[in-house]
UniProtKB/TrEMBL annotation, chain A:
Family designation: Belongs to the ABC transporter superfamily. Spermidine/putrescine importer (TC 3.A.1.11.1) family.
Swiss-Prot/TrEMBL catalytic activity: ATP + H2O + polyamine-[polyamine-binding protein]Side 1 = ADP + phosphate + polyamineSide 2 + [polyamine-binding protein]Side 1
TM region positions: none
EC number: 7.6.2.11
Superkingdom of source: Bacteria
Alphabetic keyword roster: ATP-binding, Cell membrane, Membrane, Nucleotide-binding, Translocase, Transport
Residue span(s) of domain ABC transporter: 5-235
The encoding gene: potA
SUPFAM superfamilies, per database record: MOP-like, P-loop containing nucleoside triphosphate hydrolases
GO MF entry, a single one: ATP binding
Name used for this protein in its record: Spermidine/putrescine import ATP-binding protein PotA
UniProtKB/TrEMBL annotation, chain B:
Residue intervals of the ABC transmembrane type-1 domain: 47-255
Source organism per UniProt: Litoreibacter arenae DSM 19593
Highest taxon, organism lineage: Bacteria
Protein name in UniProt: Spermidine Putrescine ABC transporter permease component PotB
GO CC terms, sorted: plasma membrane
Amino acid sequence: MSSIISLSGIHKYYGDYHALRGIDLEIKQGEFFSLLGPSGCGKTTLLRVIAGFEDVSEGVLLLDGANMARVPANKRPTNMVFQSYAIFPHLTVGQNVAFGLRKKGLSKADMAAAADEALTMVGLAGYGSRAAHALSGGQRQRVALARALVLKPKVLLLDEPLSALDKKMREQMQSELRRLQRQVGITFILVTHDQEEALIMSDRIAVMFEGEIAQMASPQELYRRPATRRVGEFIGVMNFLEAKQTGTTEKAVSFDVEGLGNAEISVDQLPEGARATADVVGLRPEALSILFEGQNPTGRVADATVQDLAYYGDMTYYEVTLEGSSTPVTISMKNLISRPVLERGTKTRVQWDERSLVIFAA
Amino acid sequence: MLLLLAVPLATIFAFSFWTQDFLNIDHTFTLKNYQEAFSDPIYRAIMLRSVTIAGAVTVVTVVLAFPIAYFVSFHVRPERKAFWVFLITIPFWTSYLLRAFLWKVILGFNGVLNSGLLWLGLIDEPLTFILYNSNAVVITLAHAFAPFTILPIYVALEKIDRSLLEASQDLGEGTVRTFFRVTLPLAMPGVIAATLIVFIPTIGDYVTPRLVGGPDGLMIANMIQTQFLKLNNAPMGAALSVLAMTAVTLISLVFLFANRRFLK
C-alpha cells in the first residue's frame, strides 16, 4: 500500500518555542492512525499542520504524493472533525452537512440527497431539518463527522473528538468510528491523549513527547515493547524494578532484578540499542500473578506482601512489595468465584515469567 | 419611575387630540391635528426627511463601523483589544453639542475642510454641499453615533467561535465566502442592535439639524419645537410627536423581528 501522507523533517516554531522537532511519518492509505501524547506534546499542532491551519517552519508534507507547501486549508483533500465540533449555529443540521458541497456543483436535490445519506451513515437519519444548536454533544459529533465525510476526503482528521463525551457515549462512538472507518475506507488520523482510546481504535500509534515522536508502532507492539520507560509509563500501567546486568551469553543477557532474583532474557527480546547496563526493567501488572492457596506454580515464584488493593468488580489491583524490595508493584488479578480477595497485610507468593520482562532502549 | 415616564407621555397623547384656541386649549376631542399632519405637505416632507436622514445615518454608521469592529476583533492582538476599545470611546470625552459645533467649523464655507482642499489646490472654490443641508446632518450624526455601533458589532464578532471559521475553510471556502456564509450571519444580532441604537435616537435628533442642517436639513424634532414654542400650537406639536414615536416603534419592531430570526 502506498503512503497517503508523508512527512519528513517537519519543524514548527512559535517564536522561540520549538513545537515540532523533526517529525518523520508515513501513513498508509486506509490506515487508522493515532497521534497520542500528553497535552502540549505537539500532537494537535501536527494535525493542524496536515490540515493546513499552521504552516511548517521547515520540512516537507506530501498528501497523496502532492506537496502541500503553499496549499491553503480550503484546497487540501483533508477534512477535520474539530474538538469543539464547530457546528454552524445559524444553520440547520442538513445545511451544516451540505456546507462543503457548494463547491461540488451539485443540484439542490443532489446536495440534499448526499447530506441525507451522510446523516444516515452516522445514525442521524431524519435530523436534516433540525436546528443545529438543539443537538446533544454526541449528536453534534455525528453531524461534524457527517459534514466531513460527505466530501469524501482522502484523509479525515479527528482532533480529540471524543474527549467532550461521557464514558458510555465515548465507548459507543469508539466502536462506531472504527466501523465507519472500515466502511468508507478513508484514512483516519486521530489525535488523543487517552492511551486506552488509541489502543482500542488504531492500526498504528505514534507516541509524542515534547514535539518528537518517541515511538511509532502497532498497539500490541507499543504495549508489549515500549521503547522507553516514558512510553511504558504513558501506555497502561507498568512496574519498574531496579536491575543489574550480571552476564551475557550469545543467546541471553542475565540480570539481577530487585525482588525477583536472577533473570535470563533472550537476546531477541532486547530492543535495538538497549543499553548494556540497563538499570531498570519493566513489568506489566498482568505479567505477575498471585498464587492462591493450593495453586501450583507454572513459572518463577517470589514472596510478597499485599500492601493495598483496589477492587474493580471484574478485577482486583493489588499493590504488593516483593521480599527484599521496597518498591510497590501493581498486580492485576481477574476476580473468579473460586478466588478470595486478599486483605491488606497478607503474605503471599507471586509468579512471573522472564519472557514478560521489558528492557528499554534508552 | 413609571410616573415619570407615563405622565408626560399621557399628557402628550392627550394634547394631541385637543386644539389650540388662540391663548387657551380647546379640550374637545378631535382628530384635526392628525388630519392636518397627514394632509399638509410640509409635515409629510419633514417626516419623510427625518426617516430618510436617520436611515442614511444608520447605513453610513453601520457600514463604516463594521470594518473597524472587524479589525479590532480579528486583527488586533488580544492583549491590545481593551486599549482599542478605549480609543474608540474617546469621542465621548467631549459633549455631543460641542462635537456638532466642531463639525460646523470643519464643514463651513471658510471651514477647515474647504480651506484645506483649497490650499491643496484640489478645488477652486469652497464646497457648498457639505454644510447647512442634510449631508451635513448625516456626517455629524454618523460621527456622533459611530462608537455606539462599533461596540455591539465588536461584541457580536468576539462571540464567534474561531473554530467555525476554520471549519468553513476546512470545508473548502476561502476568506470571502467564509465571511458571507459564517462571519456575517453570526454578527447579524450585533448589526441589528447597532442599527436600532443609531436609528431610534437620530430620527428624533434636534441639536444637529438645528446647528448644521440649515433650512433643508431640518427634521421632525425641530418642527415639534417650532410648534410648541414659536407657533404656540402645543396640540399640533403633540400630534407630530406621537406620529414620530409611532414611526420609530414600527420600524424598530421590523428590526426586532429580523433579529429574532437571526438569533434563532
